[in-house]
Amino acid sequence: MVEVYLFITGLIFFAWLYALVRQTQKGFDAEQMTEARPVVPVNLMDTAEAVLVAEGRGRIVYANDLAREWFGMDGGTPNLTLMSQMVQPADTLHDLVAEAGHASFRLNQRRIEAVSHPIPGPEGRRMVVVMREITAAALQTYTEFDPLRAMAILSDISQVVGAGLDLHTIVDTILRSIGQSLSFTSAEINLWQPETQTLVPVIRTPRRGTDELNKQDDADYEMGEGYSGWIAMYRQPLLITDVVARTDVLPKSFKGDFQSFLGVPLFVGDRFTGTLEIAHRDRDVFGYRDLALLQTISGQIAAAIEAARLYQDQTARVAELSGLQQIAEAMSQLGEPSELYGQLTQRVAHLMEVDLCGVLLFDEDEQIFHSQPPFYGVPDALIRNYRLKIAPESELYTIWRTRPWWFTNTPDSPIIRHMNLDDIMAAMPINTMALAPMIVGARRIGLLIVANKRMRQEFDEGDMRMLMSFASQAAVVVENARLYLDEQRRTRELGGLQQIAQAMGVLRNPDELYSQITQRIAALMNVQMCGILLYDPKSRLLVSQRGFFGMDDEESVNFYQLPSPPGSTIARLWQNYNVWYTNDVRRDELVADTDLATLAQAVGIQQTMIATLVVGGTRLGIIQAANKTDDTDFTEDDARILSIFAGQAAILIDNARLYREMQRRTHQAEGLRAVTEIASQIGTIEEIVEQVIVAVANVMDAQMVSIALVNEQTGQLVVDPAYVWGINLKAPYIMDAYASGFENSVLISRRPFLSNNLREDREQLPQYRSLINQFNLRNIIQVPLIIQDRSIGELTVANRATGEIFTEADAQLLMAIATQVAAMIDRMRLYEATDQDLRARVQELDALSRVSHELGQTIEL
């Protein structure tokens, strides 16, 4: 019996041992399977953020539902390469997966803030990337700020803009006004330079203290360089509470002079224009409330700075054009060469604000430069016998033959040494120098030299643009002086030049100018017909201008146009040759089968000569002379004379264009300032809008101006009769912004629309067609009203009052005006919203007061 009991006990033991071994083996297999699957922490499954988990080498092993929705995976396998292509900048996601960090980026239309952290795992380190969408609603919960602070800053900006458009005054006021709401020890405003892709500081507070503001022109920021370059690259705000602790983005140079940093990008519409940055020497000074404040006012700040910058550019251009006119006046004062050079160098020195200015003429025969005294700022004795010979392999020779200008701000420059100005430098040191070749037609005839800017300033590219323009005008004056010296040999040519130069008095009227030029050339050349044909690059035509001598019928003048497409016979005649002539147009093999022969026969031309109008290397068109009055043939001597007259006429025509452009730019600059001043005033939105649209009509010479605004509740684009000038709109004109095809509108596409033939223009949307037909609109410019990346409406001008067409330059000007109008409307809406909030608070306080009073009486009872 005992044996049976022991046997049964043994069987039970072995059965239990077998079961234990099998259970252990199953647990091991289950563990192996678990390790083969991605490990997803439980707290990441139900999070409100998008989550990615990546293994080494960037393989995405997990993406939650929100991440899949954002990246549009549709149940597919996550792929880091494809996901990175949807992100801007594209390398951001790779950087987050590679190592722990923090970044902001765009995912389609979303603005995303992401943080990555490493987590250990059985097979090595994995990276968890947590992404959160940045929305206005999300920011509002923890970035609420006092709107009165924003209102105070915007009020200061409006006041200074209304007082004037000086750029540095405006940015000075902006920083001082912000300093009253935010504490900072240093601040900086940078302007974006699209040509060089750099940020240039326009103003910067001192490193210590904020009482005095100084301007600095160094320390430009490349794309991605330092905090400023980071903002420029990612177009995102940057908040750093501890500079030392933040390692994913570094300052350009860290000297321990600040520990907290806050910067926001500045946008005019959707165009990046610069950055606004503040810093503090202590840690944890700035927060999201401060970030929200700067983002709220950044649109107004960008609009104010952009208006000041445009006004500054327009003013500089007007000064440049005025300088060109002053130099051109010397053309009609041909006296002794010394007097002419003295007047020329004195005017250029005054315009360029330099202490030294002179002219060097190049002798082709001797291959040497000769000084032309007097030099401004240098005694004649030191410069009278100055000669300069340059070697073909030298840098100075390259400047002379190929460069449009050159300058240096280094006194030890080798170019200054090669100039061999030892006698001058013994009398006065040369700290800065600039050179600009003087070009007449396609010939380089000399150098215009300036040196030593006043107040120890330095030359820059803006100065070179002006110097190049002055050199072009000086070249004409110098060429005329050279002709004057050859008076005995070229009496006839010089007399003709002087007669043509007298046409300067009719610069205001192009038709009279062309008539004066052609009439005098016809008399000097003894021809029956003489006309000016200017090239129109759009239509590729040489178009005859009114004032065509010998062709009094205006219809014939309008009919006489020579097609000149690139590569054609006519194009080669005036593009490749300075002068061409034939004494039998119908039988000339070169032009017999061209439109020139056909039109010549139609207007009665038997023999003709053309000379190209060239200014500064640019070919404007031709002067055509035809049918000699004495029945003789054209000769090489006639060709040489007409070529000289054409050079002079080209300068007069270009001067007339510069004069009209100067008038137009002056009118536009004053108009822009008027619009800006009106837009910065305080009043009801209806009153200010009425004044603004009248000012826009004056600036644009338009017979109709309208502002269409989006109804934020219905999404409709509404043209209110109160916001229209020039037409009698009796009821609001409403357009559905969600209608089919409206995505191509100015409002949605944010692209300006220009048309000079509305009735036949198929690009015009049908929603506008009834308005166009009702009020007989012929030509139009429409631009979007954009504020802080939001399109809030459209600004429209139509029917040019002068009868001229609208141009791309007009569209650019209207875009600048639209920036101010959008900022004005946004500011007025902010005023109304703040006023409503204040009224609501007052009502709440009154209600609380009444309740307290009633409670007090109840307690007494």
What's the gist of this structure?
With 861 residues, the chain is α+β, with helices and mostly antiparallel strands. The protein is 44% helix and 23% strand. It has six domains: 1-37; 42-134, Beta-Lactamase; 147-315, 2-Layer Sandwich (Beta-Lactamase); 337-449, Beta-Lactamase; 491-661, Beta-Lactamase (2-Layer Sandwich); 681-836, 2-Layer Sandwich (Beta-Lactamase), CATH 3.30.450.
Tell me the name of the CATH homologous superfamily of the largest domain: GAF domain
Q: Based on the structure given, which CATH architecture of the largest domain is correct? A: 2-Layer Sandwich
The number of domains: 6
Structural class: alpha+beta
Overall geometric form: globular
The biggest sheet, with number of strands, parallel, antiparallel or mixed sense and barrel status, is:
6 strands, antiparallel
CATH class of the largest domain: Alpha Beta
Strand content: 15-25%
Spatially, the strands of the biggest sheet line up as: 2-1-6-5-4-3
Number of strands: 30
Distance between the termini: 102 Å
Instruction: Summarize the amount of helix as a percent range.
Output: 40-55%
CATH topology of the largest domain: Beta-Lactamase
SS element count, helices: 25
Low-confidence region ranges:
26-45, 136-143, 207-218, 488-497
Mean pLDDT: 79
**How large, in whole angstroms, is the Cα Rg?**
37 Å
